[in-house]
Amino acid sequence: MSTELLLAVNGFLTLVLGVSLRALAAIYASKFKTLEIAKEDMQVRVQKIEDVQGSKIDQLTKEFGRMEVKIDEMKNQLITLSQNFHKLKNEESSLVSATYALLKFLERNEKSAS
């Protein structure tokens, strides 16, 4: 009888252990499924953030490109302005030199006529 009792207790404990393991497996399967859903949700959120950041980076890249073009245009305008300024200065110097030479010529002619 003690063998039968041991077998019965063993069977009962095996049954309790099996039911407990199935209950734990069901609990953790549910938690795992919840974690999987949360992971997928986070992946969607991360993708949306990456898309927004990517589009912002693209917008900034375009804006910087436009700014570079404007800066290049301003550089060209400054170069042109500088060239015109130097040209004007050279013309002014030439005009002053010509006027001075004409004045000297007139003074020499006036002295020789007198």
Describe this structure in words.
The model has no long low-confidence stretch (mean pLDDT 88). The protein is an all-alpha fold and 114 residues long. Helix content is 98%, strand content 0%. The chain has one helix at 2-113.
Task: Write a concise keyword list for the protein shown above.
114 residues, mainly alpha, 1 helix, rod-shaped
Largest sheet: none
Low-confidence stretches: none
Question: What is the general shape?
Answer: rod-shaped
Helical segment tally?
Answer: 1
Q: What integer is the average pLDDT?
A: 88
N-to-C SSE series? H
What is the alpha-carbon Rg in Å?
Answer: 48 Å
Strand content: under 5%
Instruction: Please give the number of β-strands.
Output: 0
Helix content: over 70%
**Spatial gap, N to C terminus:** 164 Å
Broad structural category: mainly alpha
How would you summarize what this structure contains?
By secondary structure, the chain is mainly alpha-helical.
Write the layout of secondary structure elements.
Blueprint: H1 2-113
